Amino acid sequence: MGEVILRPYQHALMGEIEVPGDKSVSHRSIILGSLANGVTKVTNFLDGEDCMRTINAFRAMGVTIHKEGSTITVDGKGVSSLKEPMEPLYFGNSGTTTRLMLGIISGLDFFTTVYGDESLSNRPMDRVVQPLRKMNASIDGRSDGKYLPISIRGKKLTGMDYSLPVKSAQVKSAILLAGLFAEGETTVTEKTQTRDHTENMLEAFGADISRNGLSTTVTGKNTLSASNVHVPGDISSAAFFLVAAAIVPDSKVTLKNVGLNETRTGIIDVLLDMGANIKIENQQTVSGELIGDITVCSSDLNGVTIEGDMIPRLIDEIPIIALLATQANGKTIIRDAEELRVKETDRIAAVVDVLSTLGGDIKGTDDGMIIVGKTTLSGGKVASYNDHRIAMMSAIASLVAKDDIVIDDASSISISYPTFFEHLQSIIS
Ligand code: S3P
After folding, report:
1. Whose CA is nearest to atom 4 of ligand 1?
2. CATH number, residue 380
3. What's the domain count of the chain?
4. Active-site positions?
């Protein structure tokens, strides 16, 4: 896609959008489908680059996976059917694929090497490597396994009790997945609740799993049974249009069939706290996950403070929340979000750079940012940092900017939302 020029747009947004499937749930559906016995049919799968990395990894280990658009069929034959891949596994930009797969591969009786693109090669992997080594995993890699490339010689793993030092669903999931095939029990305890899609799906696939507050235990005596998965719309993708409708005067936009798992709905709570006009309808539970339609109408907004337990519930939405804050009256403070420094890019630095280029009043802090609104944004040339969520935030900024916004390279958007520009076009009246 390369460079994209967005003309200023000062009209109301109207319409309905059905965002693509949730990225986190899509990855997990392929992983559990491949480990299970039987055929798993996945509908509304996210047809984005990151999720294809997970499909390709299991194909390389001998699993038959058919894909027709967003419908996937995984012909699971159980964990013992997985074969040593002939070549190193390439995980591209996908942190979720990498961290979850490290948990699985560590317990498989073969040799595997994994690597990724430049961004992924600079993201910390020691957060999963260290706990997996405590379970007897044999892992080596660049800087003693802190970074990709990483090689694993599969071993019989032993269960453990582990308190998560980082607020990360990827780390929690890696350990739980390793625990499925380890000797004895594996318990993971987190300080703050992070997204629990792995736990929900493990229950649906019949795993021996129990939850007690912030602790989750799995045993090593697991045989998973195939279970069909309907993937909810991704609230992290819907977030761009929820914010667009909230900040562009006279707008009304409905996002259909969006995942409303409580561990992910921080963006809705923040919008409500700021004074947004939001209605949620048609709630139902599908494949163990709550979904519903969200309608947002524009309104006057006020700055808020976002911190503590709220952060993991909206970690991926902080770039678009920062744009939202430039359109709210007063100060918005975001803290306890140091994890943003190790996402696809340093998202604190990237957001501050993009929004200050556009004339926003924003300052980075060690663990977040402070934004003062309301500002009229100018145009300008901005860098996407090859980060899908930074590129989409910049595109939404054009809806309230005075002049053209030029994004240097918007191709990363296909990581999580390949139909983003079509959907944006559809609500421009
Ligand atoms: C994810 C967990 C989060 C999130 C990422 C997807 C997952 O990462 O930012 O986009 O699917 O488990 P961390 O676990 O690093 O917080």
Report:
1. 316
2. 3.65.10.10
3. 2
4. 316
